[in-house]
Structures are given as structure tokens and as C-alpha cells.
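Translate sequence into C-alpha cells.
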Amino acid sequence: MLASDFNPGSSPTPSMTMIFSIAATQLRMTPAESITASTINAAHTLNRADQIGSLEPGKFADFVIHDCGDYRDLAYFFGIEHAWKVYAAGRLVFARR
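Result follows.
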């Protein structure tokens, strides 16, 4: 499982794209592996894969649409704000102009 665990004591970053970059450079994970580890695999560790972790009918639709040409860009350009739209429970909660 990959996560930011954002807190001031041991993980002072909320940036999942930074976590993806660390996974790629330090753990030798592919971008696809890091996304899987932070979504559906993380949901399985919480015993909630039937509700969260992937985009499927009947699951909570919390997701981000990133403004990048390829999903692999997320790990390699982590200092750039890629979030274009953010949805929570299937509703748009943020949109960058």
C-alpha cells in the first residue's frame, strides 16, 4: 500500500504524486504499480475493496482527473499541480480553470 499519511510528525506532505515519484525512484515500482498500490490494493488492506479503490458501478466515486498527457507523467513531474477536476461521491468538488 502507498499513501501520504499526511501528518506533521512523520510525513509532512499531502502530495500523492510525490509518493508516486518516490515509489518509482526508490522502490523501483512502475507508475501503474504505484497507482494500483494506492487505490485498489489500499482498499483491500482496509477490507473495503467492495466499496472503494476502483471506478465500478456501486462504489463510491471519489477520483481526480489530472491534466497530463499520460498517467506516467504523475510520477515524473510531481512538483506540477496536475489536478484538473476532483470528484467526491460522484460530485464535482474542485475544478481548475
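Note: The chain has one domain: 16-95.
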